[in-house]
Design brief:
The structure is a single chain. The chain contains six helices and seven strands; from the N terminus they run H-H-E-E-E-E-E-E-H-E-H-H-H. The protein has 172 residues and is an alpha+beta fold. The chain has one domain. The strands form two sheets. It has a five-stranded antiparallel β-sheet with strand order 1-2-3-6-7. A two-stranded antiparallel sheet has the order 4-5. It starts with 5 loop residues before the first helix and ends with a helix. The relative contact order is 0.17.
Length: 172
């Protein structure tokens, strides 16, 4: 991912008001972000952990979506749950259900879409082996490049459901 600024982040949100985007808490250490290792920027709000945000490059621009995390459900550490974006297996609460209001009239009517994602939104780091899950090292026959491509397709599908295929209307 190319480096982005606070201004870039606040300007790209499509499913919340400009006022909400202006007030959201940015990730800590934004200046030290390992941009070459990221496919998207995702973070939980340190002041309100049920709030999360995701910013990704899409169709030549940035798309930011506000998310809500479902309350943690205590799961057995003997069972794994997969992230629907990067397909990393996690134990316990390593995966969370995130919901995003849809863009436009559907979102104003309360319609949301959801996906199970890495609870810390660090998919890029797990795929590249820069971060380990509770289960330790992942064993998968795909190369890092193939994992990154798969995650990009999965994330794009989620964003497409949030946008409902109408990026122009979302930015307008």
């Amino acid at each position: 991912m190319n480096p982005i600024t606070e201004r870039d982040i606040r300007a790209c949100f499509v499913n919340c008001s400009k006022g909400e985007a202006g007030r959201l808490n940015l990730p800590r250490g934004l200046r030290e972000t390992p941009w070459p290792d990221l496919d998207f920027l995702g973070w939980r709000d340190p002041g309100a952990p049920e709030r999360a945000y995701l910013v990704a490059e899409r169709d030549g621009g940035l798309v930011g979506v506000a998310l809500r995390a479902a309350p943690d459900v205590r799961r057995s550490f003997t069972k794994s749950t997969l992230c629907s974006v990067c397909v990393t297996p996690h134990a316990g609460t390593g995966v969370a259900l995130f919901t995003a209001p849809r863009v436009g009239a559907a979102g104003r009517q309360g319609n949301t879409v959801g996906a199970y994602m890495c609870a810390d939104l660090a998919c890029s780091l797990y795929m590249r082996g820069r971060k380990q899950t509770e289960r330790g090292e992942r064993f998968e026959s795909l190369t890092v490049e193939e994992r990154v491509l798969r995650a990009a397709v999965n994330l794009d599908a989620f964003l497409g459901r949030v946008l409902d295929g109408d990026l122009a209307a979302a930015r307008g």
